[in-house]
């Protein structure tokens, strides 16, 4: 697929974006400034740097770089993806406001909405994003924001933001998109009419399973509001975490491109296996959203799911036999990981409820990492036998 973006290449921005000009003798790698406070000029309030204010050197540079990657005016780093979601929405919602959200969202986000936000007097309504005209039908005068994730965990369904943003633009509602699964390499929601983008930077942005962080991106005045929440709720990352994220970001483009390619190879291989009932991957013609994915994504992603014949028992047996693929939660890093929604994101549902939303027992979610496709397929093959 040709890239949809006309901006300077994302691969280059991920390394050089927002970098100060170098002088002879400077370190090639930007230094880690692991200091909470900084000297301040007497007689002025300007230049006040403090880690919790999100303005120290390591945070500031990565924030500018992420904004360039997503095509946003501004961005803010927070101490986790959950911190990003919480502060992003606390900056938008007041008691009495209505939040319209997709029901297919990250488990932690779901709990934040129905346990915390509801208690704060925010009216949360979860809807099925594939019900026809669902957004239009449910918007009220109190609706302040629409929240969704795409691609959707774990079935990799893809939502088209354009018709939704047409509605939100015309009614002054903020369209907030958790774009963790796509990363800016595969999809940039702001180009499709979203107002706010959220990332769990723990996943693709860092990509090495060693940093917990989140990011919010949007307009400058809005990010200033999110910053006020971050400062007061204390959700700011440490400089070292920002430095590690900067390091991880440099390889974002190659990592995501490689995961895209390998996931496609694994999906094509899995489609031919008689032990696999169904393969969920937007790059396959059999995927319900293949056409829309082809149209709006720059890459189909590194996430895919397989449904094994024989249900939970077959899944248990398969997982015990894997040697290379790691059975662990989370996603978006160099190691290929597999997890079972019935024990992780969808553990609170009954098997029948899960089956009804397309996640029967025997459903395995893979985050394809950077091992060779050949070695991965060999491992999957020996575990299936
Ligand atoms: C992991 C994840 C989160 C939460 O991020 P943390 O960094 O674990 O707090 C939110 N949304 C999605 C889609 C995720 O995968």
Automatic annotation (TrEMBL):
InterPro entries, per database record? Cys/Met-Metab_PyrdxlP-dep_enz, Cys_met_metab_PP, PyrdxlP-dep_Trfase, PyrdxlP-dep_Trfase_major, PyrdxlP-dep_Trfase_small
Lineage, top-rank taxon, reads Bacteria
GO CC term (a single one): cytoplasm
Indicate where the modification N6-(pyridoxal phosphate)lysine is found in the sequence: 203
- Provide any one GO MF term from the record: carbon-sulfur lyase activity
Q: Does the keyword rRNA-binding apply?
A: no
One of its GO biological process terms is: transsulfuration
Keyword annotations:
Aminotransferase, Pyridoxal phosphate, Transferase
Cofactors: pyridoxal 5'-phosphate
The record's family statement is: Belongs to the trans-sulfuration enzymes family.
What name is this protein filed under?
PLP-dependent aspartate aminotransferase family protein
Q: Which organism is it from?
A: Pseudogemmatithrix spongiicola
Q: What is the lineage of its organism?
A: Bacteria, Pseudomonadati, Gemmatimonadota, Gemmatimonadia, Gemmatimonadales
């Amino acid at each position: 697929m040709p890239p949809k973006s006309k901006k300077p290449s994302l691969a280059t921005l991920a390394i050089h974006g927002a970098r100060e000009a170098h002088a002879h003798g400077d370190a090639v790698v930007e230094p880690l400034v692991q200091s909470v406070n900084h000297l301040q000029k007497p007689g002025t309030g300007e230049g006040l740097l403090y880690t919790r204010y999100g303005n120290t050197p390591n945070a500031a540079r990565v924030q500018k770089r992420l904004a360039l990657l997503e095509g946003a005016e501004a961005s803010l780093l927070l101490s986790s993806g959950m911190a990003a979601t919480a502060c992003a929405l606390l900056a938008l919602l007041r008691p009495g406001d209505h939040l319209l959200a997709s029901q297919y969202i990250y488990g932690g986000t779901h709990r934040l909405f129905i346990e915390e936000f509801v208690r704060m007097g925010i009216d949360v309504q979860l809807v099925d994003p594939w019900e026809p005209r669902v957004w239009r039908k449910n918007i009220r005068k109190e609706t302040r924001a629409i929240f969704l994730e795409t691609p959707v965990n774990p079935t990799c369904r893809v939502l088209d933001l354009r018709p939704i943003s047409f509605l939100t633009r015309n009614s002054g509602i903020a369209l907030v998109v958790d774009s963790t699964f796509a990363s800016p390499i595969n999809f940039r929601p702001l180009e499709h009419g979203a107002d706010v983008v959220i990332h769990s930077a723990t996943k693709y942005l860092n990509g090495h399973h060693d940093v917990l962080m989140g990011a919010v991106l949007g307009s400058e005045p809005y990010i200033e509001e999110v910053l006020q929440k971050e400062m007061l709720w204390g959700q700011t990352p440490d400089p070292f975490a920002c430095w590690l994220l900067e390091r991880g970001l440099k390889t974002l483009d190659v990592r995501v491109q490689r995961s895209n390619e390998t996931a496609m190879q694994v999906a094509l291989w899995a489609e031919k296996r008689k032990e696999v009932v169904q393969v969920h991957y937007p790059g396959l013609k059999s995927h319900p959203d293949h056409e829309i994915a082809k149209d709006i994504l720059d890459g189909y992603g590194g996430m895919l799911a397989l449904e094994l014949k024989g249900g939970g028992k077959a899944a248990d047996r398969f997982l015990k036999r894997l040697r290379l693929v790691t059975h662990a939660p989370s996603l978006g890093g160099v190691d290929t990981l597999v997890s079972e929604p019935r024990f992780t994101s969808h553990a609170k549902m009954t098997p029948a409820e899960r089956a009804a939303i397309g996640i029967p027992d025997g459903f395995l979610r893979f985050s394809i990492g950077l091992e060779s496709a050949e070695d991965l397929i060999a491992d999957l093959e020996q575990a299936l036998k």
